[in-house]
Amino acid sequence: MNTIELFKKDLWNGIWIHGKALLKPMAVVFIGFTLISYGLMYLGVRTVYGEEFVEAAFNQEEQAFDFDKMMERNTELQALLMEQGTATIVAGSLVLLLVMLVLFSLFTNFMLTTSQDTLEGNNVGLGTSFSRSLGPNVFKIALCYIFIFVLYIGLLFAIIGLARISVALVFPGLFFVLATLLRFGSAPAGIVHGEQSVIQALGESFRNIGYGKAFKLILVLFVGMILLGLLGLLLTSVFSMMGSVGDAVGTVVQVALSLLLYAVLFSAMSASFYRYAEVEYEVEKDHLIDDSAQF
């Protein structure tokens, strides 16, 4: 069965199958983007906040499970930040956020472009996919993320207002906020797969993913987070008994799990678009024929 057809008939199975297909092309790119992100973050934080702050922030030693040491470290970080001045902190933070936003938008565009190539059966190299990703869609996707972030902040202020009325309204309010944000989840896919504008992509996503579907997604995410948390605790306890070898194995496992999660995430983005898009596909050749005329 064609993968796009599978998205329409058996969504979760289609997401899993397509996610596995994305693992191979994603591996090298994910590691590359991760290294670049950490490198830029380290250099940016060092430039804006100073060397002492970097040493205190990144030199965690064995403080992860020591509450007193964590509190001492946080107090030290706050003192170092206050020395920099409010203007420096705000300006530096905005620059760092902007750089990370563009980088993640480029990563999103690349992965959705690769997803489309995989669905269409186009055997193109990573270099070709990357060059195609360096286009205006990066900034469109960035605008989508900015819109979602601004909406998130606005809804949080609304939740604060509800809390003044009744604390009991906060918990369902937070679920409503998360569900509302999830309704815009397929917007980046609409930009890449459907060649839509930012407004069109946001509108189509909000219309296609209703609150019922969004609450089901929250339930799936909640169960998944619990299972991953339990798995993480189990693996941490096992690897901690293996010494330095366990640390190395743990890092490999962590990277592998991150790869799988991101592959499923971008597969779900593509699926959420193609599930509702009116596209023509040819089952015999197992790829999409033409959808450009629909948008």
Task: Tell me what the structure shows.
- There is one protein chain.
- With 295 residues, the chain is an all-alpha fold.
- The protein contains twelve helices and two strands.
- The chain has one domain (3-294).
- Helices cover 80% and strands 2% of the residues.
- α3 packs antiparallel against α4 (67-84), α7 (137-165) packs antiparallel against α8 and α9 packs across α10.
- The longest helix has 39 residues, at 11-49.
- The protein starts with a helix and ends in a 5-residue tail after the last strand.
Highlighted features:
single chain, 295 residues, 80% helix, globular, two-stranded antiparallel ribbon, mainly alpha
What is the compact description of this entry?
Helices cover 80% and strands 2% of the residues. It has 295 residues and is mostly helical.
As residue ranges, the low-confidence spans are: 281-295
Number of domains: 1
Mean pLDDT: 77
Radius of gyration over C-alpha positions, nearest whole angstrom: 22 Å
The major sheet is characterized as: 2 strands, antiparallel
Backbone shape: globular
Query: How do the SSEs run, as a string of H and E?
Result: HHHHHHHHHHHHEE
Strand order within the widest beta sheet: 1-2
Question: What structural category do the secondary elements indicate?
Answer: mainly alpha
End-to-end gap = 25 Å
β-strand number? 2
**Helix residue percentage:** over 70%
Strand residue percentage: under 5%
Helix count, DSSP H or I runs of 4 or more residues? 12
